[in-house]
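Severity: low
Component: inverse-folding endpoint
Summary: output formatting inconsistent between runs
Steps to reproduce: submit the following structure tokens with default settings.
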């Protein structure tokens, strides 16, 4: 039936049983298409008509950021090894799956200091991230015998899901407030903090956008939101942001 054009409507009808959850609705379609692509590749189907199914879920969390107050509250209750997870997210902006893979030998000296050279898992691109003061302190506090920057309570390697779950657990213990619409802050939401750190480290908006996998406009938007909810550093951040925008427009 999947070699017939009408199968697309059949598949859309089937995945509507998850219409109450846009994420599950999209995931059902994604898994079905993966199976159909495999069948075509194996020669079990000549073709199928279920490519590029419409998605409902829109993952825009640009407005959700960890403020300095949030981080301070979190660090008051979280164990040191969990604090390191949050700090590495805030200082690098790497995805959770990449954070747990960062090793000490990924750092290299440059003419003006030090940088983290890391090949990202999702796009396979090499990211060059300047070592901020916070990242340097994290690196300095890493035991000599420890290869990766992040380990569990017993010194064992961390899985990305476990790292994310620990941030959620201790964020709730610290009673870090949810966003205005009730969404809870996650480890992935540290990327706005990281973008601001990189701006303060004199990276251009284009460089920040490249590192994060964002557009220049989106990177500027995220940094501006961070400045709005972080009044203790907003003046400096906004001044740097305006200067970065001006430089970008001149290119």
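Observed output (run 2 of 3):
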């Amino acid at each position: 039936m999947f070699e017939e054009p009408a199968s697309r409507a059949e598949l859309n009808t089937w995945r509507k049983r998850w219409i109450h959850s846009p994420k599950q609705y999209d995931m059902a379609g994604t898994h079905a298409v993966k199976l159909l692509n495999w069948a075509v590749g194996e020669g079990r189907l000549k073709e199928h008509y279920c490519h590029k199914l419409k998605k409902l879920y829109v993952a825009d969390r640009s407005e959700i950021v960890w403020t300095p107050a949030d981080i301070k509250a979190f660090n008051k209750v979280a164990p040191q090894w969990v604090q390191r997870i949050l700090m590495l997210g805030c200082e690098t902006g790497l995805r959770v799956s990449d954070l747990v893979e960062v090793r000490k030998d990924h750092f290299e000296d440059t003419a003006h200091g030090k940088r983290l050279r890391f090949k990202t898992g999702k796009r396979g691109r090499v990211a060059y991230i300047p070592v901020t003061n916070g990242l340097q302190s994290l690196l300095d506090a890493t035991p000599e015998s420890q290869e990766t920057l992040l380990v569990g309570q017993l010194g064992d390697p961390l899985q990305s899901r476990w790292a994310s779950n620990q941030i959620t657990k201790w964020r709730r213990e610290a009673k870090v407030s949810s966003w205005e619409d009730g969404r809870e802050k996650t480890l992935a939401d540290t990327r706005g903090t990281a973008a601001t750190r990189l701006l303060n480290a004199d990276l251009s908006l284009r460089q920040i956008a490249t590192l994060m996998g964002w557009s220049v406009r989106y990177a500027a938007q995220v940094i501006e939101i961070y400045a709005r909810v972080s009044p203790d550093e907003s003046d400096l951040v906004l001044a740097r942001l305006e200067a970065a925008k001006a430089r970008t427009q001149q290119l």
